[in-house]
């Protein structure tokens, strides 16, 4: 184990380009370390100008390869990029086939690119709580572009993708792929669609399916464009970057971006409130009065919902009177 | 829209075999309907004897086909089965290829089998909160076997699989599949491993990889057996059912089962406590004092964590004093 350093020292080291310090800060946030609130506060007080891009889609849609192609273009344009990969089968987190790993490896030696996988186990909603924090840290480190890559399969993963300023949904040509994206809740969160692997048969039909779904939905302001890409040779990636830029400008000028960011902050506060209340509730669970309620449930005398209501009343009375005293 | 019926009437109708009433009860739980606490309470007071089996694995591992084969065997043994599918790409929820859908269709006309897909969108943790409730409802309906099928990809989905009495992790032959399962957190929750599609090359190697990982882990009581199956022709399914039975007996006799169930109830209470506190906090978010805190965060004057702590203090003081009054 490395000796714990003061997070503000790590933060200033990270700001001056020390990637190991940056990595340690992220780990502290991931682990829900006590010091992570200090890090968040520092990051919050040092806002940057990052454009936060979410890239999501089913496993095997070719998100990492596409991300790599997009990163190359941003680098050519002189922009610094951070990639946060939240994907158990992603090359970044070590699950995918060797070829992909090598492909993303193009950027490993580039100091203008920072790649990091995120995984938080244990507490429910831990990942959703930690991603906005890490994204904000990246912003305070002055990255121009921050990409969050998630697999659009799990409920939490879809919610995380929706946190971005611009959300890109990746599908593949093929029967029902667009329909499936719709079922998984991906249509609602998309600002841009990408039909990746567009050199395969059925690409045009998939584009048409998505356009048809867009025709049927109630779009008031921004109609998501549908791009075609081949991640593996990079074709279409420039068009995608252009559409991302267009969306960013539109969102900025129309006031949607600041509205979206305000909403995100509100949701973040709500989530933090919930997690704070939960940890207080957890500490209550050990108390004698609560233990006996739990025993009643295990014996079948009281149902879990009734027990929970009684625990909440106990927590509120106790903590409330403490709060008034202090 | 169907007119809302009293949940206790629906419950007794469902108990006497009315599947439409059962379906409506589940929908009420999924939607977080106010009446769902009544349903939970009824279900809790009418315990059955279900064995709760979780089946999980990566998308495409052949979980549904394997589940169908297992269901056939239980039916031959005269046992009634409920299948709860939590999987955006599952045939039950409509995402998968037509072949799979037809295959599980074998059981559609069998009154001893009940198949239902579950999806809860919106609130974080909604799915994890609703699955134990629905599983308990199935138990009170006297199903012998309740199978929960999830895709072991998302964080929440892995947690849901771990709720079962017996958790089966399905992998496929191939380089790194076992390793990937390990990374996704599936090794920790497995009571039984299945290498499905074992007619493909690499099956033996995958079994060996899993055994090697088990050798390295600290197993104190139960060592998960590793089965080989071919879901599509049902071979190995009988062996799997036998291993499931063995695990159930072991867990029952060793006291692990009742301990696991007690822990599950404790976790359920915790989750309900958190969700109750969260909904009280949410109603607080509209109040003037909280709104001004949120405004400070949006202006960058206060960081989200500090704001959350202040909101919690406000909630506790206010609700606490209400509680004391009543």
Write a structural description:
The structure is a homodimer of 326-residue chains. Chain A has 326 residues and is α/β, with parallel strands linked by helices. Chain A folds into 3 domains: 1-46; 47-263, 3-Layer(aba) Sandwich (Rossmann fold), CATH 3.40.50.300; 285-325, no CATH class. The first copy, chain A, is built from 14 helices and 7 strands. Chain A has a 7-stranded parallel beta sheet with strand order 3-2-4-1-5-6-7, with helices on both faces. In chain A, helix 1 crosses helix 2, helix 6 (126-140) packs parallel to helix 7 and helix 13 (288-299) runs antiparallel to helix 14. The longest helix of chain A has 29 residues, at 256-284. At the A-B interface, helix 3, helix 6, helix 7, helix 12 and helix 13 of A face helix 3, helix 6, helix 7, helix 8 and helix 12 of B.
Q: What's the total helix number of chain A?
A: 14
Q: How many discrete domains of chain A?
A: 3
The pair of chains with the biggest contact is: A-B, 76 and 78 residues
Tell me, briefly, the overall form of chain A.
Answer: globular
N- and C-termini, Cα separation of chain A: 38 Å
Number of strands of chain A: 7
Draw up the topology in text.
Two copies of one chain form a homodimer.
Chain A: H1 7-15, H2 19-30, H3 36-45, E1 51-57, H4 63-76, E2 81-86, H5 98-104, E3 113-117, H6 126-140, E4 145-151, H7 155-161, E5 166-171, H8 177-183, H9 186-189, E6 192-195, H10 203-216, E7 226-228, H11 237-254, H12 256-284, H13 288-299, H14 304-325
Parallel strand pairs in A: 1-4, 1-5, 2-3, 2-4, 5-6, 6-7
């Amino acid at each position: 184990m490395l000796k714990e350093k003061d997070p503000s020292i790590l933060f200033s080291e990270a700001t001056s380009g020390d990637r190991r310090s940056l990595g340690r800060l992220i780990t502290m946030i991931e682990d829900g370390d006590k010091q992570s609130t200090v890090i968040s506060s520092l990051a919050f007080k040092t806002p940057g100008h990052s454009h936060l891009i979410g890239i999501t889609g089913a496993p095997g849609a070719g998100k990492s390869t596409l991300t790599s192609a997009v990163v190359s273009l941003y680098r050519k344009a002189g922009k610094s990029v951070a990639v946060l990969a939240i994907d158990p089968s992603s090359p970044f987190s070590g699950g995918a086939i060797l070829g992909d790993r090598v492909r993303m490896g193009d950027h490993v030696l580039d100091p203008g690119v920072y790649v990091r996988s995120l995984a938080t186990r244990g507490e429910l909603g831990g990942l959703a709580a930690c991603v906005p924090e890490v994204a904000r840290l990246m912003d305070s480190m002055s990255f121009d572009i921050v990409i969050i890559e998630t697999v659009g399969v799990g409920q939490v993963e879809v919610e995380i993708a929706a946190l971005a300023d611009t959300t890109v949904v990746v599908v593949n040509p093929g029967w029902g792929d667009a329909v499936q994206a719709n079922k998984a809740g991906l249509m609602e969160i998309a600002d841009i669609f990408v039909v990746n692997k567009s050199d395969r048969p059925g690409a045009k039909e998939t584009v048409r399916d998505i356009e048809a779904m867009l025709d049927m939905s109630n779009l008031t302001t921004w109609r998501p464009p549908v791009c075609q890409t081949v991640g593996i040779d990079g074709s279409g990636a420039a068009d995608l970057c252009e559409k991302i830029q267009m969306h960013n400008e539109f969102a900025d000028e129309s006031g949607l971006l600041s509205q979206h960011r305000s909403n995100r902050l509100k949701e973040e506060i709500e989530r933090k409130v919930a997690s704070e209340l939960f940890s207080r509730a957890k500490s209550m669970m050990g108390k004698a009065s609560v233990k006996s309620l739990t025993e009643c449930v295990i014996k079948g005398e009281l149902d879990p919902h009734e027990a929970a209501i009684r625990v909440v009343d106990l927590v509120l009375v106790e903590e409330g009177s403490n709060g008034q005293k202090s």
